[in-house]
Amino acid sequence: MKNTIWLLVLLLISTACSTSKTIPSQWMSNEFKETPFDRMLVFANTEDKVLQDRFEDKMATVLVSEGITPVKMHELFPEVEYKEDYSQEEIDNFVQRCTAKDIDKVLVASQKSMTVDTVLAKNLRNYFNSLEPLSLSHKKDEDLVYDKKELTTYTIEAAVYDIAVTTEDKPIATTTLKVTDPKSNERIENRFLKEIEKLFKNR
pLDDT band for position 3 (50/70/90)? Predict the structure, then answer.
């Protein structure tokens, strides 16, 4: 019996220490699978300039490994500033500038959403408070006290656009990573890059 209890304790502790979770997903159109890529502009859409430069450099390395010549946004258009919402006029102007530079393929990485959920913490206090059938006293639900914590979920996405043929600002391929309660930004960044690499390898 004691061994069983200790196994439960260890399970609860290990679960509480490993709440970070990542869920990848991919989508690609037939156009993405069939279109040859020679040059591609990479754009990390973030207000953090250091992160933008670093991530665009890393995305460029991924494209080079796939035989694609990368052009970095922070080098080609350093004056373009981060915005949460670009107007259609700004997008049209950007497309024209890319076309003038003989660029018709663009890879954009950005954060799509962030949600915060309050959940019950996975700890011994909550575990024992939930043992209603074994309770010696008749506690009412409202008398029970549970520990709670917040879980933050980020959804980040890399989308490929063919601005030569796309008339409705729709991507021809996307790779998405949903991350809950990340423990290391560097690990998430590297995982995201691997998912981008998979997108091109799976063509």
Answer: very low
- Alpha-carbon distance 203 to 186, whole Å? 27
145: pLDDT strictly greater than 90: no
Displacement of CA 167 from its chain's centroid (Å): 26
Quick check: 40 and 101 in contact, CB under 8 A?
A: no
Which tokens go with 148?
């709670």
Q: Give the relative orientation of helices 49-65 and 185-201 as an angle to the nearest 10 degrees.
A: 30
Rounded Cα gap, residues 38 and 165, in angstroms: 16
- Name residue 113's beta-bridge partners: 155
pTM for this entry = 0.76
Number of domains forming the structure of the chain: 1
Is residue 8 domain-resident?
no
Q: Residue 86: what pLDDT?
A: 87
Confirm whether 181 is domain-assigned.
yes
